[in-house]
Please model this.
Amino acid sequence: MKKLNILFDAYVLAECDHQGSSRSGIFFTALNILKEFSKNDYVEISVYCSNKKFSYKLTRTLDKYFPNNKFKNIYLETLTSIELIHSKLTCAYKEKKSLITKLKLLVISGIKKHMPAKKIDYNKATKNIDVYFSPVYKIPKEIKEIEHIKKFTLLHDIIPILYPQYFPEDKDKYWFYNFIKEINNNDYYFTNSINTMKDFIKYCPLIDTKKIFPVPLACSEQFTPQKENIKSVLKKYSLPLDKKYVFSLCTLEPRKNLIRAVKCFIEFINKNDINDMVFILGGGHWSGFLEKMEQEIPNFDKYKNKILKAGYIADEDLAPLYSGAEWFVYTSEYEGFGLPPLEAMSCGCPVITSNNSSLPEVVGDAGIMIDFDSEKQHIQAYEQYYFNKTIRDNCAQKGLQRSKQFSWKKCSDQIIKIMQSVL
Model:
């Protein structure tokens, strides 16, 4: 079989490779697909950074995750030596705002400004490329103009269109609104769920329905039951060892519905006179979130020892935290896919999720699914898990089994198979 030559837009890997709240499911999706592509004997990978300012940082990011990195970097190979030095210094200054680095950057910027720009022949640089794959962003203009390359983009969700109130009013300031304008009937698209595919077909009529394919995602292989490490991880984040806990992991934005989940937890422990349980919040904190929670939950100060903020949790600590939880709560208003419930199920943790959008495709009958806006159903779900160990254990086992249906190998194999069929 002829090797498939893929040009992979790895900008998101350079952009989000740091510990913090901006490191999201999109980052891990791109990273894991690239990992699986690189293992396939019938695939040849070249990488590209659609944001040129990050082109050198991309090389260092790839070296970190791929120690034997032999990817051909299309953009870096077209840089002059001065442009390459400028790219290196820009990355260095962004990471550590050193005065010496700034002075060097000013000198190189001055030299670069007076040098003739090097014209890049992208047709020549990509002559052996069959397909261009973007795991999130729009196809850049210089690639779009190359006729011999088939273009594929992975679509994650259409949330900014469905819930514009959660996004900037000035649409030019948010990448998605510019991205959506580029969707057309010539290119090919993957979606992370059937629900997301239906959304894009509905709201982007230019999409050719024969050129869009649902490909379920997966979670990292690190997510397995890890009971033995629970206590050490709880200690690391100053969380109590003598309490049962409910766990939630998400960016703390309104769509995640976390205030309602917390409010219902407080009502649940009050109603049932429960003193042996806390609610642990994991994830980056949006400014103003805690103040809003205090405003919306009556007498919140009284329950501060019951609602514990773990903040950002390191990758290696997530599986133990999932494994030790009595259950995991993820009752979002809407999701494109929903990786955290899949991670929880993979660790043998019972889940409570919303019954909307793509979540039923992920959870199936392996958890308790409720209306996101029903406080009554939240409390009932908490009571089911707390008072009925049989239900809890049954959902934990079902979740473990269902999680085995999802793998990054299966995801990437599907993508490659579709690319080959298009060619």
